[in-house]
Amino acid sequence: MDDTVMEISTCESNDQKEVMALKRCEQKTYKNSSHMVGAFEVLQSLRKDRVLCDIGIETDDGTIIFGHKVVLISVSTYFRNIFTGSNERNIDHIINIGDLDSTVLQLLINYIYTGEIIITEGNVKVLLSAANFLKLDYVKNVCVEFLQTQLDASNCLGIKAFAVLNDCMELSKSSQTYIKDRFLEVVNHDEFLSLSSVEVIKLISCNDIFVQLEEKV
């Protein structure tokens, strides 16, 4: 074999190379606005195909929804506390959350991966309760906004009670304001008629209830 050392030529000769003279300036940081969206789209695709999933969430009806711990803890402090807390080593590959409806849980897991949530008049209450349980503040807040648009004389008392139960102070206040401003309409509906005497007394004792004639209260 010939021991001659061969010099590998480059695409450009020295005569062809140009020296780029750049002005001195501060460094600049560039951010790809679609980077995170693309990454989560891939993660969602992997989840649907059960690729690299390291956790399954089971509900009482036997439905198991698979996911990635690192994704779940990035959005939900509930999952963060479970998977990174002192009992983390004792967590099985399948955990049971029996208090949640499987359809609603699926919506919330999809939200964690996509940032999108579907809210209807049929699922808003159970969705809010589940979001409150899983510490998904954004979903809880948009459910509150949705319910505020649904307030009327026939449901404001029920929505207020629901808000108190789920620690939604903003919804509770807006419901209370609605009740006070439209009290004479509220008393004509079934929700008011189903109140206990104690609840009625508490309600009509409010000094700022708006009525046209004081003697109607």
Automatic annotation (TrEMBL):
What InterPro entries does the record point to?
A: BACK, BTB/POZ_dom, SKP1/BTB/POZ_sf
Q: Where is the BTB domain?
A: 53-121
Q: Which UniProt keywords apply?
A: Actin-binding, Kelch repeat, Repeat
Entry keyword annotation includes Nucleotidyltransferase: no
Which Pfam families is this protein grouped with? BACK (PF07707), BTB (PF00651)
What PROSITE patterns does the record tag this protein with?
BTB (PS50097)
- Keyword set includes Thylakoid: no
Tree of life domain? Eukaryota
Q: Which PANTHER family match?
A: KELCH PROTEIN, KELCH-LIKE PROTEIN 28
Q: Name it.
A: Ring canal kelch
